[in-house]
């Protein structure tokens, strides 16, 4: 037990001694660490002070360099300003010297002007004195001349003026006469030249219209179908179209005879449709003829439109375009009216261009100059075609020059513009071409028209057709207005009217046809 205590006491003493020794060692180590830390801190502070000094020196050097740089720039700015100011002062000095020189020159000029003004005033005084002296001398001379001639100055002047007037008048008359003769010769030569050039530049083929059309068929068997049972089909065609159908021994051909080319064309197209369709009977014939007539009317409008487009004419009224198209189916002395009008329009355009006038206006007047030859109503046929055409042109808004040219191309009215004689001359040129017209055909057509007009002069007449070259007049009457007895009387009255009013070779057969129809529709 004592040993154990001793051991424990020894251990405790040993631990205490060890602890003390450890503490002492720890203190010595701590003092060493503190000394080394102080040395490190002193070195760091010393190093920081050295680095701070170097940075400070660098910043001072940079500041000095910046200052020197700014100072140099400032000196440059000051120097440039000084230079500009010196330049401005130099320019001002130059301007002052220039102004002073100009002032000296102005003073010299003013002195010269004043000197010349004084000289001019002096000369003016001298001239006034001389002028007054001349006036006095002139007056004295006039008085001496009046005394010598026993005439006053006004009387002498009047006599001199009268003598000069007479001499000038005779000279002027002689000059005017010479110039007029020269102008006439020159005008005739120029007019001949223009007309010849115009005729040479416009060349057209001439085709005289006749009164017969030939309808070709594939075989003679078709002729029997066209004639129909007891000739009813051919009678229906003639009654509906007013065209005489001649079926003879001519192989594969049927002849259509009528002075009106529109009727012939309607009959030809109707026959073509009927033969192509194969159904040929009176009811079908009437239906086809009505459709063909409408087709011809539409074709007339298309022909008018194509004509005005070809000639370069714009803004023409639709009614005038329709009249132009209708001219295709009219003839004047055997010459196709549309072909004649187109030719006149081209001639007028060329001649107007040669004379320095408006060629478009001349073409317009040339195309429309004969529209009075295609009247809508029979009452219009009593008016001369030039006057009727002028009235229509005025009605549909044509210019006064065009209207006057249409009305004056046959001298019915006075010509009021240069366009009118051009239309007259070109109309004569177109009609005077060799082979262009045939007088006999026109008189024949007029005789057939007169025959139909006589029939239309009686009440109840619905249609009238002159056929067989004017040897027969076929009249279709309205059954409601004309009875069978009245039809016979009408035939006699028409024949008597023809005998008294017309001159014709041979005989004229008057046939009055009265047809009654009863039509009802089942619904």
Helix content: over 70%
Overall, the morphology is: flat
Separation of termini?
Answer: 161 Å
Task: Decide which structural class fits the backbone.
Answer: mainly alpha
What integer value in Å does the Rg equal?
A: 62 Å
Number of strands: 8
Tell me the β content. Answer: 5-15%
- The order of strands across the largest sheet is 1-3-2
Largest sheet: 3 strands, antiparallel
Low-confidence stretches: 205-209
| Continuous helix count | 14
pLDDT average, as an integer?
80
Order of helices and strands: HHEHHEEHHHEEHHHHHHEEHE
List its traits:
three-stranded mixed sheet; 7% strand; 14 helices; 70% helix; mainly alpha; single chain; three-stranded antiparallel sheet; 523 residues
């Amino acid at each position: 037990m004592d040993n154990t205590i001793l051991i424990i006491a020894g251990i405790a003493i040993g631990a205490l001694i060890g602890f003390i020794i450890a503490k002492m060692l720890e203190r010595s180590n701590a003092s060493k660490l503190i000394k080394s830390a102080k040395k490190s801190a002193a070195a760091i502070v010393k190093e920081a002070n050295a680095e701070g000094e170097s940075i400070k020196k660098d910043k001072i050097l940079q500041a000095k360099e910046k200052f020197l740089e700014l100072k140099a720039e400032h000196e440059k700015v000051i120097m440039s300003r000084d230079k500009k100011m010196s330049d401005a002062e130099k320019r001002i000095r130059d301007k002052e010297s220039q102004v002073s020189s100009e002032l000296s020159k102005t003073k010299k000029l003013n002195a010269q002007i004043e000197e010349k003004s004084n000289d001019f005033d002096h000369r003016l005084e001298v001239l006034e004195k001389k002028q007054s002296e001349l006036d006095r001398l002139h007056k004295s001379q006039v008085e001496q001349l009046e005394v010598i001639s026993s005439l006053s100055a006004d009387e002498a002047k009047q006599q001199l003026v009268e003598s000069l007037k007479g001499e000038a008048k005779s000279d002027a008359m002689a000059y005017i006469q010479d110039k007029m003769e020269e102008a006439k010769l020159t005008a005739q030569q120029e007019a001949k030249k223009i007309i010849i050039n115009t005729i040479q530049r416009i060349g057209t083929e001439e085709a005289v219209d006749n009164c017969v059309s030939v309808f070709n068929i594939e075989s003679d068997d078709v002729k029997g179908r066209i004639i129909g049972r007891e000739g009813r089909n051919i009678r229906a065609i003639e009654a509906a179209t007013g065209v005489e159908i001649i079926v003879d021994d001519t192989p594969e051909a049927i002849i259509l005879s009528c002075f009106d080319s529109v009727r012939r064309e309607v009959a030809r197209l109707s026959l073509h449709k009927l033969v192509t369709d194969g159904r040929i009977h009176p009811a079908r014939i009437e239906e086809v003829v009505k459709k063909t007539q409408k087709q011809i009317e539409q074709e007339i409008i298309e022909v008018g439109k194509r004509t005005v487009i070809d000639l370069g004419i714009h803004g023409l009224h639709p009614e005038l375009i329709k009249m132009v198209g209708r001219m295709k189916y009219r003839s004047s002395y055997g010459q196709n009216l549309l072909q004649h009008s187109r030719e006149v329009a081209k001639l007028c355009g060329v001649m107007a261009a040669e004379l320095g006038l408006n060629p478009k206006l001349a073409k317009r007047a040339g195309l429309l100059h004969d529209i009075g030859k295609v009247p809508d109503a029979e009452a219009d046929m009593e008016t001369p075609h030039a006057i009727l055409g002028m009235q229509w042109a005025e009605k549909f808004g044509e210019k006064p020059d065009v209207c006057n040219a249409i009305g004056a191309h046959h001298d019915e009215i006075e010509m009021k513009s240069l366009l009118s004689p051009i239309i007259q001359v070109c109309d004569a040129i177109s009609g005077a071409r060799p082979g262009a017209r045939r007088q006999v055909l026109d008189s024949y057509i007029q005789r057939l028209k007169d025959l139909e007009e006589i029939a239309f002069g009686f009440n109840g007449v619905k249609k009238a057709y002159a056929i067989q070259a004017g040897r027969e007049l076929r009249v279709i009457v309205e059954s409601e207005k004309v009875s069978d007895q009245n039809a016979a009387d009408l035939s006699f009255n028409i024949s008597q009217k023809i005998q008294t009013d017309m001159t014709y070779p041979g005989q004229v057969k008057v046939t009055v046809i009265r047809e009654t129809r009863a039509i009802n529709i089942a619904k």
